[in-house]
């Protein structure tokens, strides 16, 4: 098995190191000081489950890697459409792409045989079909990340919690390529269940992201601060309720209570969401997949979602008026 990690940041380098430890032929594609450190010293993982160092091949040139069996995509979702030149050298006729992204993926309505919206393109995450042109639907393997990592220093990954990467085919089949990838991930010390319908995991994680990410950026508050403020907790609950209604209209029925989801987020503590971290770093906010696509699906399914719409309007304006890089 040959795997390229395109965008070997905190999550990508962690996954690559774990797979390399399992004996997989892994190639990390990164840039800057992080790449230089991985080339010289390997990937050092600091984890409550045990520290280790792995030495997979690391490069900034996908042409050095060539065709692979899988591409683990560690880029932000808004970068997919412009990643064609990086992806092209990695793509063989059967190469699969594991998109480890937050929010709604570009392939969401692909393979939903019998659903009224089967094949529907979601403009927020596939504007003008630009992502599908780079990442054809048949290559996609869904992936939901339940893992928290950060780059502590170039080449050094701090694993904070979680090892689960749920994967699944858009058409709900249990495919040989998913099973093989799952076995490799498990051999590397990760959890990697193959889900019959990975969309349920997408919505369960999205319930948190769609509320806490934009609200934290708008208020500069941590997860626990949002949960402990009664009015903002109520706002989170309203956003989650609307999200569940949209999910069901879109053909999925996540089995989780809103109170349980909020309490789980509160236990994370004084954690800054990725969107708040991006805002403070002057980076582009990842709102398209996390909330814009949810509002678009609400429109497609004719589900009223006033709270989500209002919060989206506010975070969209913030993203347009903030310094981005």
Automatic annotation (TrEMBL):
Annotated organism of origin: Lentzea indica
Pfam families recorded: ApbA, ApbA_C
Domain Ketopantoate reductase C-terminal: 197-316
Domain Ketopantoate reductase N-terminal span(s) in chain numbering: 3-170
InterPro entries: 6-PGluconate_DH-like_C_sf, 6PGD_dom2, KPA_reductase, KPR-Related, KPR_N, NAD(P)-bd_dom_sf
PANTHER family, per database record: 2-DEHYDROPANTOATE 2-REDUCTASE, PROBABLE 2-DEHYDROPANTOATE 2-REDUCTASE
The protein's name: 2-dehydropantoate 2-reductase
Gene3D superfamilies: N-(1-d-carboxylethyl)-l-norvaline Dehydrogenase, domain 2 (1.10.1040.10), NAD(P)-binding Rossmann-like Domain (3.40.50.720)
Lineage top rank: taxon: Bacteria
Listed NCBIfam families: PRK06522.1-4
């Amino acid at each position: 098995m040959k795997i390229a990690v395109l965008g070997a940041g905190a999550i990508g380098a962690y996954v690559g190191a774990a797979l390399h430890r399992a004996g997989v032929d892994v190639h990390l594609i990164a840039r800057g000081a992080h790449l230089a450190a991985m080339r010289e010293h390997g990937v050092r993982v600091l984890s409550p489950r045990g520290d280790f160092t792995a030495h997979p091949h690391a490069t900034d040139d996908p042409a050095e890697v060539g065709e692979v069996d899988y591409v683990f995509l560690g880029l932000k979702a808004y970068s997919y459409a412009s990643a064609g030149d990086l992806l092209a050298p990695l793509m063989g006729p059967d190469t699969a792409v594991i998109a480890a992204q937050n929010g709604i993926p570009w392939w969401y309505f692909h393979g939903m045989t019998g659903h009224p919206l089967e094949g529907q393109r979601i403009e927020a995450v596939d504007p003008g079909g630009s992502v599908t042109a780079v990442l054809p639907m048949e290559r996609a393997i869904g992936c939901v990340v339940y893992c928290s990592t950060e780059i502590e220093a170039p080449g050094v990954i701090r694993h904070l919690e979680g090892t689960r990467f749920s994967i699944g085919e858009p058409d709900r089949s249990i495919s040989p390529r998913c099973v093989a990838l799952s076995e490799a991930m498990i051999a590397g010390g990760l959890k990697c269940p193959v889900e019959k319908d990975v969309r349920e995991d997408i919505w369960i994680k999205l319930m948190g992201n769609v509320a806490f990410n934009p609200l934290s950026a708008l208020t500069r508050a941590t997860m626990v601060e949002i949960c402990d403020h009664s009015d903002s907790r109520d706002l989170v609950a309203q956003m989650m309720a609307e999200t569940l209604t949209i999910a069901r209209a879109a053909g999925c029925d996540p089995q989780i209570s809103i109170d349980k989801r909020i309490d789980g987020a509160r236990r994370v503590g004084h954690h800054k969401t990725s969107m708040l971290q991006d805002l403070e770093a002057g980076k582009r906010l990842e709102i398209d997949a996390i909330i814009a696509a949810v509002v678009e699906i609400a429109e497609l399914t004719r589900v009223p979602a006033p709270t989500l719409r209002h919060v989206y309007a506010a975070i969209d304006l913030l993203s347009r008026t903030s310094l981005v890089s």
